[in-house]
Amino acid sequence: MNTNQTASQQESRWSRLTQSKYFIYILISPLFLVLLAYVIYPFYQTFIQSVVGTEGAGIGNYKRFFSLESTANLEALWTSIYISVISVITCAIVGVTMAFLIERYEFPGRKILSILVLVPMALPPLVGVLSFTFLYGESGIIPRSLQALFNLESVPFSLKGITGVIVVHTFTMYTYFYLTASAAIKGLDPSLEEAATSLGSGRIRIWVKVILPMLTPAMVASSLLVFMIAMASYTAPLMFGVERTMTMQIYLSRTNGNLDMAATQSTILSIVSISFLIMMRWYQGRRNFQNQSKGISVHRTELRTPFMKYLSMFLSFIGVIILMLPILVLVLISFSVDGEWTIQIIPPAYTLDHYIALFTDERTWRPIWNSLQMSFVATIGNILFGVAAAYAMIRTRFKGKALLDILIMIPWALPGTVVAVNLIAAFSEPSVFSFNQVLIGTFWILPLAYFVRHLPLIFRSTSAALMQMDQSVEEAARSLGANWWYTFRRVVVPMAFSGILAGTLLAMVQGLGEFVASILIYSTSTMPLSVAIFQKMYAFQFGTACAYGVLQILLIIFVLFISQKLTNGKAGAVI
Amino acid sequence: MKSVRLDNVSKMFGTAKGVEHVAIDVKPGEFFTFLGPSGCGKTTTLRMIAGFYYPTKGKIFFDNRDVTTLQPNKRNIGMVFQNYALFPHMTVFENIAFGLEVRKLSKSVIKEKVERAQKLVHLDKYGNRKINELSGGQQQRVALARALVIEPDILLLDEPLSNLDAKLREETRLEIKRLQVELGVTTIYVTHDQTEAMTMSDRIMVMKEGVVQQIGSPQEIYNKPANHFVASFIGESNMLEGEVTEIRGTAVKVKVDSDLHVEGVLDTEADQPKLEVGKKVKLSIRPEAIFEGQGPNQLHGTIQLVEFTGVSINYLVKVGSSILKVMIINKGNQILKRGDSISLYVPEKGVYFINE
């Protein structure tokens, strides 16, 4: 009797607590705590380092950054912006043209092209740049074969410097434009064009007055995105030796031991990135053209004349070649004997050794195993955080929602270089958030970096899945007597499963390919896969480097395939 | 079987009004309907009974137990949602079994109960089907079985028929009513469809903009509407306004305009407006209360529009400056044409005086 009473009292106190409108803040506080510890605090530490520095507090570092006496920093900022703007323009041209050709015209080779057009997404940043230098670099396969073919004195062209960076950016980033533009074109209601025609418009007027305005939102969104990614780009400038970009300057300041300056440069780059992020969020909030009619059927114009048919066939063939070459060359070189390939057009000797070594030689296998472990740890963290944050975001109401959203998206906007610098600033010394440990130099710093960098992935894919799920399904479970936890386990998680899994795979694979932050914070005992590729590359062990690269690509293709299946072809939503 | 009592319940959303001062007493086993146009607060009220919203003011009782802030999963209710809210990742059997598993019944008992429920809604052979392999009507019946199998104290139905096509809607309507009568469960039904409300309910609560307009049996609601809104929302009605010219006991004469005088009888049992000679009054005449031919309240008019529905002939008739809807049951009478003149009469009990 007595125990019964206390039990019911406890229950009532518990239920009073859970029904309080402040209870939600207890639930979401861990989310904010994680963000505070691993996003805001490191960022703050970097900022402090940039203003406090070694020579006493002040804005001296910022003065030096913008000083006109030594213009290296200003030049770097200018070059970064210049490269980013050009990248946006070239990516837009390539991406939108491809989208229109593939969505609006029927020609021989369209099917294969429409699949291969996404190949650049399967290239991890480092491996992509690598294959471009093999193909089009100073001693690349294409320039050399042209030289041999036409008996030239020197190679007719080669990719280097800023041009090289822009070409690589175009190749790897046009997919962002392609994806949004083709989605927008698919969503274009043909009846709008028909309506315009019926009202007497000609083709040009339809383009100017109907189609382009409808595509503008997609274009603006992708421009901001590509600009942001190009600003953060580190691998391409590194491989093409463009030292005057923001990311390279941070890397150089850091390796030269000028930590205050690295912090200053990081802070300035962060401000640029975050302001672009905020612009994007703001723009996404106000854009939206809804289609009124349902069940849109896309009609493709067929190319009829034989000449056009052959021309299009030829052009698609060229397109396929260009798209496939980077991967083919990696596969080719992965079979080459290390050190044999010097002045020949293609490697002269081949072997299977590199692939065998991957799984048999302990030293070659080590980086793969490291990356698998670290990526796994980071992904577990991402799942816990991402699912909880997505649920809180979509299903509950609390003050500070917009703040949570922005805080989660910030790591995604921050260049990997900056994330690394921030973590170094925060965790070179023991702090509460690292349980009084120094994390730099340990195993844990890399998983932490991966966790922070890929924070939004699972959050976004899960949010998308939850948004599609009608809330009444949860209410139905509650009305049938299930408590919150039972409902979450039996109904919410199974229904959002495909979204969670898609994000998880993506986070895992991104972790396996992560290079930009890793290069700044790895230690020899925890060398990740991408850093190993980089080092093999510099040790002229091209074969091993490419074998690693092929392995990464296979993993990524596998993951993209699975998530495409899971999200019914809406993989674009995850990225 | 439990009674449901709402004690002066109000719900505010921020500063926006949801519902105000709802006070009802649903008897055990009763079929009680909330009726009103969208946004009238009927679903809000239902969700407070289910426990998805808590009232801002007032209390809710199941029998004599205060459940105002009880969690929905502790209320033992069965609820059918407008979009059914079936679990898409489970089979028909698993959907129906969900509530029983929550209650930790043994496997064999669950199997037996689910199979009985499937039979009840004629889905015996569909246990292994996935939800997306069912038609709308079948999904609807799964939702019903899932809500009923837990033997709820109260069954809540939120516009359960609105996603079905007309034919299926009628079939399912009979089905729901049959199950409710057979199982005798206290049922609260939300709809904006007056036919559903009229045919199924023991009592109806008509709501508008969060305020209760009238509570009563279907006959009371139809025959003795409390106000203009109820009269025009339930069925069709000719609403007229005029000046009282004479009161003799319960008989009242009203002048609508110079060509249209109407005489009616005050209903002493219903809530009737206080009438005085010279004051304005509103009255309602149902289209089917107007007859063709000679009789009391003789009217003459010209036909503006003719509609033939099969069951009836509907006329719009211009009498003086007013236009009246008239419904004549089709007994093979001659159908008049636009422009013809027509003689009509209204029996005195066909005239109903309403408030405001």
From TrEMBL, chain A:
Domain ABC transmembrane type-1 intervals: 77-280, 368-563
Transmembrane segments: 22-44, 76-101, 113-137, 157-179, 210-234, 262-283, 310-333, 372-394, 406-427, 433-452, 491-509, 546-563
GO biological process: transmembrane transport
Alphabetical keyword list: Cell inner membrane, Cell membrane, Membrane, Transmembrane, Transmembrane helix, Transport
Membrane topology per record: Multi-pass membrane protein
Pfam families: BPD_transp_1 (PF00528)
Record bears the keyword Membrane: yes
Subcellular location as annotated: Cell inner membrane; Cell membrane
Domain of life: Bacteria
Keyword Membrane carried by entry: yes
Gene Ontology cellular component annotations, sorted alphabetically: plasma membrane
PANTHER family (alphabetical): INNER MEMBRANE ABC TRANSPORTER PERMEASE PROTEIN YDCV
Homology family: Belongs to the binding-protein-dependent transport system permease family.
Name of protein: Iron ABC transporter permease
